[in-house]
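Hi Y.,

Following your request, here is the sequence exactly as I used it, all 224 residues.
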Amino acid sequence: MNFLSHFYFDRDTANCYMVLGTVMPDLLKNADKTVIIHPEKLSHNDHNVNSIINGWNKHLLVDRYFHSSDFFLTHSHQLKIKLLPAMVGSPVKPFFLGHIALELILDNLLLTTGKVTADGFYDHLDGCKTPVVDEFLTSSGLKNTGLFFKFYDDFKKSKYLYNYADTKQIAYALKRICMRVWKDPFTAENEAAMNGILMAYRACLAEDFMSIFEEIENKMSFSY
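Below is the corresponding structure, written out as tokens. Let me know if you'd prefer a different format.
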């Protein structure tokens, strides 16, 4: 799941460090894809650091439930098939495209239906103190945290997730993600064709998309 979909499960918490923890694996991956840390069993004497750890573990649990669900398997496959004609000449792997496209559509639907707000998400991130975040990272074994904080500060300043509310921007957001792996993932023609397909698929998902969030919440109620 993407940033706002993870945030959905803790949208009502007052604990900003828990929220940060639920998106920290993706933040780190975006900051430096070579970084690998495993704080899952880490215990710290600072309760705020422990909140980030708890959020991290919740992220892993949510992703495990999501990626093994019939909802994910069905819709990522259908998106892959529907997007194939729009990908002529593209180096992007079809499965990767279907996977990421589904996650972006879910974030868009959460925003456009008012289930979460980008303001709420960024307010939580802004509430986290840098020394606490740095302590989490160093305790988890990350020796040089500078690269992460450069990305993290830019991520907060750009407030890019507000763009996810614009359905017409889903294809562009997908292109940006693919550019981390492929230098020129899509032509203008690819992007235009994908946009129409994604908008149509979003409309089909709109009535039933909350079922996956309800399914995951139900499963998590038996895990805590």
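The chain has one domain: 3-217.

Thanks again,
Q.
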